[in-house]
Design brief:
- With 453 residues, the protein is α/β, with parallel strands linked by helices.
- The protein has three domains: 11-70, no CATH class; 105-159 and 293-327 and 342-452, Rossmann fold, CATH 3.40.50; 177-289, no CATH class.
- The protein is 43% helix and 13% strand.
- The protein is built from 18 helices and ten strands.
- The strands form two sheets. Strands 6-5-4-7-8-10-9 form a seven-stranded mixed sheet, with helices on both faces.
Length: 453
Amino acid sequence: MSDIVTSALLRENFPESLFPDGYELIPDLKEIYELQLAYYEYKMLTSQELSENGAFFASVEGKPTRHFELCAGESLYLPEHSSGKRKSFFESNIFRTGYGTHGLFPYRGKFHPQMIKGIINIMGIKSGDTILDPMMGSGTVPVEASLMGIHSIGVDASPFCSFMAKTKVDALFMPLARVEKALNNSDKVFDYFSKKSHSPIKRNTKAKKFNSYESFREEESKYLTSENDSPSLESDETKLTHNLLLLTYLDSVGYAERSKRKSAKELFKGILQRYFFVCKKAQDAISKTGITLGKAQVSTGDARHLEIESESISGVLFSPPYSFAIDYIENDSFHLNFFDVDLSNLRESMIGLRGGRLLMDKYECYKADLGQSLKECARVLKHGCICSIVIGTNSSQLSKIFRVPKDEVQGLHELTAELGAATGLQLVKQIERSIHGMSNTMRKEYIVMLQKT
């Protein structure tokens, strides 16, 4: 190779050189899997589709993409007491997580929204189609699908997750006037909710019974947002505001329990300020970019027995709970008690938590439940469409179960492909990505894409 050619090659800016002029990748794209998804997006989407719903491009044909405009501006409103590390995290991840209403409530083990957008794109799901997440957790798929103009169905065994996901979806369009008023009277708003429940001293503290958004009562909307406030107790605005303030309260109580630095009441106003900022920024961006939101249907249910019509879904995307690494019931105990959930019954319906004390028992239940869930996904999925599963390796726990070295165990991603094949879902692609923040339990996870043939 001549010196001239070598010099020209070294001056190219990789990976941008993979794409034509005018196609600019978002800043800080560092992971190999992100580059893979960006490349597939470029190959599979038209320039207009890439501009409207692409996940990894800042500009297409020289014009800013919707994703860039959704993320542009201040990354997130953070209280003054926030650490420099926390502020740096949100600033560096503005294009991955800091947009839409994904920033409401810091739920453990949740998806990276930008990754979900990329997966949805390469699954071939278009505006107007319907996607299913049968284990939706904090609601990343319904929120992201809504922003893409895609309809969604989200199901989760946890009533708290259902409440959280619905609130995050509603926050994309709900009126914010009463939320803003609540900021000026935050202490009384906090007191209203604290009277409904004991503030937890430790995990598994029993909370008083509290009705969810599905059984909203007039008396529960009598919180104060100003001294002379007299809202219509039956209005949707009142109910939506109530739910957002309740989520803020639960967030503040959970944060106070973890950090021990400030009381929940001291934290409440700062978290509410952040929630208001997140919602307003999202709604302003939606209005500016002309997004027509997809419809999201969110409910509490069982992934093993879906109440969905056969062959009615254009794509399925989910992540089984990391229950070997995170006990979601223990982690969410106060929030679940707040909704008067029977924790022992929920444990018997949550994938990964069923079974006896022995790890082998839990594994066998996990395998059976995942297989049944994939069978249901295959039933509701249209022919030729794709079911994507994001799943960690869990090699440390599995090696203990089978008493073999880590590199000899069957990874959960391999098990997923095997169980999928038994239901008519054939492996078409597998993408590896590193897990950050859970390296003691899982170092890698895989995007496993199965097609109904």
